[in-house]
Amino acid sequence: MTFDIIDTKLIQLLQEDCKQTNKELSNKLNLSITAVYERIKKMENNGVIDKYVALIKKESIEKSFVAFCHIKLSKHTQDYVVSFEKEVTKLEEVLECFHISGDYDYLLKVLVKNMQAFREFMVKKLTTIDHIGSTHSMFMINEVKHTTAISV
Hints:
Layout: H1 5-16, H2 22-29, H3 33-45, E1 65-73, H4 78-88, E2 94-99, E3 106-112, H5 115-124, E4 132-139
Antiparallel strand pairs: 1-3, 1-4, 2-3
């Protein structure tokens, strides 16, 4: 799907605040409410807009301890990869999981309450997954930039 300047601006406005009404968006874009609605529907139908979510402040739910875990599988067979990926997606503490190149196979972003909760997560959940050869963890000191918006 190709985007014109209005589509690009609409995507930016929706990523800033998707709860804006079509009327508010139409005023900002100098379009009719119907035109805004149709553009949004077209982007939804074409899979450009995947879903709408509420972003929660980590501190407000007492889960502000962020860790990044490198995972190395013991073997790189298809069965091991599929099995690991299936199991890691079940872990609610894991916000993101990336299959990566380099010395490790996966990078996980983990969110928990504190160091004790992270230790419990590692011992009782993550390391119980079959086929993990080794792990290496790092902890966030300060969040310098965090965005969910994608530049179009």
